[in-house]
Amino acid sequence: MFVPILTPKLQSIERRKGGGRGGKTGTSGKSSGSSAPSSSSSGGKSTSRGGKVTSVPLLGSTNTGKSTATAYGLGGGNPITIPSGQLFAGRTAGGGTRGQVFGTRTYGSGYPGITGPGVVGRGFPFWFWPVVWGDSAASTAYLHGTEYGDSMNSSRVGGPMVEATFISNTMNTTFHVLSDNSTTTSLVTTIDANCTAHLSSDSSSLQPFNASAPGAPQPEQAIQYYRSSSIVLTLDGYNNSATLDSNLNATDSPLPSAIDLKLLDCLNQTIAAAAPLIDGAGPWWSTVPSTVPLVGLAWLVWALLSFV
């Protein structure tokens, strides 16, 4: 069941049909890599609706000022400017909401209000850093940068990057989810619960991500980015020629026909609905001015309760 406001309107994966690598993202209308699906999901009843809100401990950088994110949380809040003395000082951070999680197949998508490939110099609308592809992507400039360090960078919000593998139990189909440690660990738990009917028993193994390692997922295998390109879903055997094409109007290569589409839909919907977000609002009492007398505050609480 789709519940307006409380439940994000999720999107399905659709290939880009030209017109630039960085189409609009969001939950309304078409994007260059996603479109709104029907209200039902072929991946199972709980893949995209009504998940349990769960606190997710954050490893890595403490620049967020918070030690947890929230699976199935709504995100949001007012963006801030990262203060002097912190990593990426002067850039904006925060404000991203659940309805803005979807990107496309383009690295650099999933940034609310921003189009075009690449992540260099950008802010952090969801606080989390974009995934990095390392030296293996050096031949294509927008895929390669050094400002976020390598995948092992312990300063990354959520900790160093790790990958999780998800294998179909009915077809020769293998997907990978790449993100920071905290995010990927949380998603493994949720995906195991939501998509178990489609998963092989060999799935869900976690390991550090190293793009230079033999057999590691590569950027041309990406089929969907999420949350300002800080999460990516890849497919073994897929080779998107548009990823490495210098023509920004290149069309995405179609997905292989003989893949497990039910598992794909389940993974896509679950990641979009459950990816941990950092909530913008703090405890409501933190917004009360310090000049309010304690007696006055107690009276205010009593007055509010009297109308309940």
Detailed description of the structure:
The protein has 308 residues and is of the alpha+beta class. The protein has three helices and eleven strands; from the N terminus they run ββββββββαβββαα. The chain has helices at 181-194, 261-274, 294-305; strands at residues 12-13, 34-35, 54-57, 68-71, 80-81, 92-93, 161-167, 174-180, 206-208, 222-226, 231-235. The strands form four sheets. The chain has a five-stranded antiparallel sheet. A two-stranded antiparallel sheet has the order 1-2. A two-stranded antiparallel ribbon has the order 3-4. A hairpin with a 6-residue loop joins strand 7 (161-167) and strand 8 (174-180). Residues 1-9, 19-49 and 281-308 have low confidence and may be disordered.
**Overall shape:** globular
The secondary-structure element order is EEEEEEEEHEEEHH
Q: How much of the polypeptide forms β-strand, as a percent range?
A: 5-15%
**Biggest sheet, spatial arrangement of strands:** 9-7-8-11-10
- What integer is the average pLDDT? 79
Q: Report on the biggest sheet.
A: 5 strands, antiparallel
Structural class: alpha+beta
Gyration radius, rounded = 20 Å
Give the total of beta strands.
Answer: 11
In the predicted model, the low-confidence regions spanning at least 5 consecutive residues are: 1-9, 19-49, 281-308
Span between termini = 29 Å
Helix content: 10-25%
Number of helices: 3
